[in-house]
Amino acid sequence: MSGDRVSVQTYVPTGQRDRWREEADDLDMSQAEYVRTMVQAGRRGFDLSDGNGEEPASPDATPGVDGLEDRVLAVLEAEGTADWETLLAGVTDDIEERLEETLEELQAEDRILHSGRRGGYTVVDDGR
Questions:
Q1: 14-41 tens-digit pLDDT
Q2: How far apart are CA 61 and CA 70, in angstroms?
Q3: What secondary structure, in 3-state letters, does the chain show?
């Protein structure tokens, strides 16, 4: 496995995310580290090949626009009736946290930096 890293995004019910956060905190891990560790642990316990040495294609569990339909339905099921603001909050509830985590990762990798003088974040010039 090379040192290159990519982002993987998935949607889970809020309750499941909250349990994962608690478990990650109990283990003194970040949420990303916890999910990576649990996925790898789960993979060790399952034969993922189809007999030909290839992993089978997984069906799209969340059809639609990146699972947006499922998220809208989940908000409506939880709320009964929801106005535009409630729906918007329900489908974007984790964007601030994800943005913060991404900015922290990019800064740790010295790919961006925050400059108060420039008034925000900027890409680090790496000579490319």
A1: 888 888 888 888 887 788 887 888 887 7
A2: 10
A3: CCCCCCCCCCCCCHHHHHHHHHHHHHCCCCHHHHHHHHHHHHHHCCCCCCCCCCCCCCCCCCCCCCCHHHHHHHHHHHHCCCCHHHHHHHHCCCHHHHHHHHHHHHHHCCCEEEECCCCEEEECCCCC
